[in-house]
Design a protein that fits this description.
325 residues, alpha/beta, nine-stranded mixed sheet, four-stranded mixed sheet, 31% helix, 26% strand
Length: 325
């Protein structure tokens, strides 16, 4: 098992971990005994696993229940090369979970059971046990801000702690209408995004949350954020990089793939892109790395598909590439 390490981590991912159950057949049928496959999910944990697969040193901080699902989540992250020494096992609350209800044609419907979960009891007090003095980046998502009032306060305290320790903040908007409606989510998600150093947001999310139609409108809304990545589904991904008065835009088209299921694609993209950024890849290369991670993940029904073999990191280049591909 990975234990506390004296060395620094390149990334700390903070947020909810979930047990994912996948029915194998029709649970209501008398034809065969009901069976469930159990996996691990949760946005920030997924990103941590993708970063580890890319060779990035990464830790995950959260709360899980003192139950079999909590042990499963911790074990899967640990086996995936993620440091889990900042995970608190909460004896008073259970690990959240969701059931993935697969449908014909590759679609899925998620049924969540996370109310009063251990992760929903994350609070500002937890930030004191996170190794912010030993990390370069912290990654968090809008899901964590949505699961409870105390978790939202934790996100604010976490960002304040990052500023105190000189840690860069990566934020994935990850709007989930089941957790909070647009009327409640739009302002706080924009506020958190404006405090980040790197923001990931889907164009569809931006349209729903803020009523802005194009990637350029997102860049205008988040005009003080050094790096903004707008994901436009099967079309491609846009990056806007700003440094002082200089701004540069890059677009890379999404590769053509036949998806099995789209769950987890955004987390995979974030993990691939952030790994490329940390390793000094040029904009086009880190966007392509994000696409490659997402393309691998959507080839199965797993939130994080095992066996991915990322390409070697491309050498950094000083010649900016700004044309679409």
């Amino acid at each position: 098992m990975n234990t506390a390490r004296p060395d620094a981590f390149e990334v700390l991912c903070v947020g909810e971990g979930l047990a994912v159950t996948l029915p194998l057949g029709d649970l209501a049928s008398d034809a065969e005994p009901p069976r469930l496959a159990v996996h691990t999910g949760g946005a920030e944990g997924n990103v941590a696993l993708h970063l580890a697969a890319q060779g990035v040193s990464v830790a995950w901080a959260s709360r899980v229940g003192a139950d079999p699902f909590g042990r499963k989540v911790i074990a899967d992250l640990d086996r995936g090369g993620v440091d889990i020494s900042s995970v608190l096992v909460d004896p008073e609350h259970v690990t959240g979970m969701y059931v993935k209800d697969t449908r014909p044609g590759g679609g899925s419907v998620m049924h969540y059971y996370r109310a009063n979960s251990a992760a929903s009891h994350l609070s500002p007090a937890d930030v004191a046990r996170f190794p912010l003095n030993r990390v370069g980046w912290v990654h968090v998502s809008g899901i964590t801000a949505a699961i409870s009032a105390t978790a939202a306060e934790m996100v604010d305290a976490l960002i304040a702690g990052c500023r105190e320790h000189g840690v860069s903040v990566s934020f994935d908007v990850n709007f989930r209408a089941r957790l909070w409606p647009v009327s409640q989510a739009a302002e706080p998600l924009a506020r958190i995004a404006r405090q980040a150093d790197l923001v990931f947001v889907g164009l569809d999310e931006a349209q729903e949350l803020w009523g802005i139609p194009e990637a350029t409108d997102v860049f205008d809304l988040l005009d003080a954020v050094p790096l903004v990545v707008v994901k436009d589904g099967a079309t491609g991904a846009h990056e806007m990089a700003r440094s002082g008065t200089h701004a540069a835009a890059t677009f890379v088209a999404t590769p053509a793939v036949e998806p099995v299921e789209l769950i987890g694609a955004g987390d995979a993209f974030a993990g691939g892109y952030l790994a490329g950024l940390i390793r000094g890849e040029a904009p086009r290369d880190r966007l392509s790395r994000g696409h490659a991670s997402a393309a691998w993940t959507i080839g199965s029904r797993d939130d994080v598909r095992s066996g991915h073999r990322p390409a070697p990191f491309a050498p950094a280049t000083d010649s900016p590439e700004r044309t679409a591909t």
